[in-house]
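User: For a reading group we're discussing how well predicted structures match intuition. Take PDZ domain-containing protein. Before you show the prediction, I'll give you the sequence so everyone sees exactly what went in.
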Amino acid sequence: MSNYIAQSKSPIDRFKSYLNGFSPPKNAIELLTIEIDVEKQEKIGLTLLKDLVIKVRPDTISHGKVKVGDLIMSVNGHTEDVKMAFVNISKSGVKGVKVEIARLCTRFRLPATALKNLGIALQEGYDYALNVLYFFRDIPTNLDVVHIEGRVYVGSVEVDSSSSLALGQGDCILSIEDTKLTTTQQLHDLLKEHSAKSCFVRLICEMPNCDMMKNCVRSKIQHAAPDPPIDLPLPADVREILRVKRETDAKTPQKKAVPILKTKKGKEAEAVQPAQTVDSKNKAKNIRFHEETRVQLFPIDNDIKLLVKPLPPKNANEAQQSVKSSETPPK
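Assistant: Thanks. Here is the predicted 3D structure of PDZ domain-containing protein, as C-alpha cells, for the group to look at:
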C-alpha cells in the first residue's frame, strides 16, 4: 500500500463524481502502487474516463494488474491528465512505469460466528463472504442471475462491468442488506431501491471453494432456464444526453457509401456496391474468375459477399481467349 500524495481532491471526492454523487466509505478505499513494464509502441490496454478505468483489454500489459473501477491517481508522479501521460509513455517506451491507484474494496471474508448470528447454515465445500456491489455512473452493472430451487445464482458477469468486481460465476446471493433473497425479481427491486439512495449495496454470498463444487454449480446453471440480465436505469441527465444524441443522429444526413470494387474493363467499368461495408484488411487485392461465368459470388468475408458481373467479350478473339482461360482454373 502506498502513501497517498495530497491532491486538490481526495480519492473519496474523486470517486463521488463517478458514484452518482454518493461518497464511498473511507475505510473501503485501498491505495496501491503498481509497476508496469512498457515496451516502445506496446499497447497499455486501458480505456479511461478522465482518471477512472472503465475497460481493460485482455492480453495487454495492464491485464491482471489494473481493474475496472480503479482510479488513477498518478503516473510516474504526474497527477494532471493521466490519460495523456499513458500516451506519452507508450510512444517513448519508458520502462518501469509506476502507477498509483485508488481501489474500492469489494470482498470481505465473514467468520463462522457472524454467519451463525445471521441464521445462515454453513455447508461443506463453500466459502462465505460479504461482497460490496458499487453503482458506477459510467460502468454498467450487467448482472446475469439464475433462479434455481428457491436460490439466486450468478449465471455470468461481464468482464468490464461493476458486477465483476464483487461477484463471480456460480456465487449464490443469500441476502441483500440483511434481506433474505429468494427470487430474481426481488433482487432487481432491491438493487433499484438501494441505487437511488446509496452508491453501494452489501451482499452475503455463498461461493464454492473447490473444483468439484464449482463444476456442480456450473452444471446447475447450464441446465437452468436463464433469466433476463439485470441492469440499473441510467440517471436522468444521462438519458437526456442520449436522447439528444439520437435526435441529432436522425437529422444528420447519411453519407453515401463509396464502391470498393470495380471491374477494370475499359470505359464500361461497372462499380459493384456490397450490402455492407468491408474493412480494408478484408478487401481482396487480386480477384480472378472465369470470363464465361455470368454471375459469380466471390467471398470477401465470412458474412459478406460481392456480386461480380464480368462484361461480355467484345469480339471473336476475346471470346476464344475467354474459352481457353475457362479451361484453366484461376490460381
